[in-house]
Amino acid sequence: MYEDLKGKVVVITGAGTGLGKAMAERFGKEKAKVVLNYHSEKNDYKETIQTIEAAGGKAAALKGDVTKEEDIKKLLDFAVEKFGSIDIMINNAGMENEVPSEKLTLEDWNKVIDVNLTGVFLGSRDAIDYMLEHDIKGSIINMSSVHDRIPWPHFAHYAASKGGVKMLTETLALEYAPKGIRVNNISPGAIDTPINAEKFNDPKAKQEVIDLIPMGYIGRPEEIAACAVWLASTESSYVTGMTLYADGGMTKYPGFQAGKG
Q1: All domains of the chain, ordered by start, with CATH?
Q2: Is 80 exceeded by the pLDDT of residue 42?
Q3: For residue 20, which of 194, 225, 188 has the smallest C-alpha distance?
Q4: pTM value surpassing 0.70
Q5: Is the terminal CB of the chain with fewer CB neighbours within 10 Å at N or C?
C-alpha cells in the first residue's frame, strides 16, 4: 500500500475493461479518487465504481473519445468538478487490429495512430497544462507495449504508435522535469485481458505466446496495475522518462534463454 496515494485524484482513460479496469480498482484499494473514462456502453464501469468504493476509494465515470480534444477537456473538467484536482493522469486507452502491411488502409492506419498516440498526446498535454497552472507536481503514466521495441509484422500501425508513445513520454519527461512533473511509460507484454481472450482460448496459440516469455506464463492485469501505483507514488519520486517493461522477460531475446545461438 502507498499511503501517499490516499485522496489523490487519478484520471484513467480506457478504464472500462482490461488493464484500465485493473488499474482503477488498484487505485481504489489505495483509497484514491478515480475518474474512469470509457468509450463503449458495453463496458461495465458501474461494477468497477462499486469495487473502488467498497475498497475505500471514490470514483466517477465519463464516456468519451480520447481522439477528440473536446472530450479530453470534458474529462479533465469533470475530474476537477467531482474531486477538485488532477494529480495523476494515466493514458491507457488503446486498440489494435491485424492487417498485412501491403493491405493496410490509410483509414486503419489513422484510426490506430489516433487512439494509441494522439490520444496519449492530448491526455498528457491537457493534464500537464492543468498541473502547471495549479503548481501540481503530478505524475503522467502512459501505456505502451513491448512492441515499442519488438517489431510485429501485420501490426505496423500498432508498433509505430507504441514507438511514438515511448519517445513522446521521454520528450515530455525531459521538458517538464524542472517543474516536478514526472512522465513515465509502462510497456506490458502478453497480458490476460479481453483483447487477448480469443487468442488465449486456443491452447496452441496460447502456448506459442508462452514460449516467448522466459518466466513461462501470461501476465495478469493486476501485475500491470502494481506497476502503475508504484510509478504514481512517491516511492518512485526520482524516476522520470522511464519505460518499465512488465513482460516476463519477453524483450530479452527468449530464444537464447537456454544458451542457444
Answers
A1: 3-246 (3.40.50.720)
A2: no
A3: 225
A4: yes
A5: C
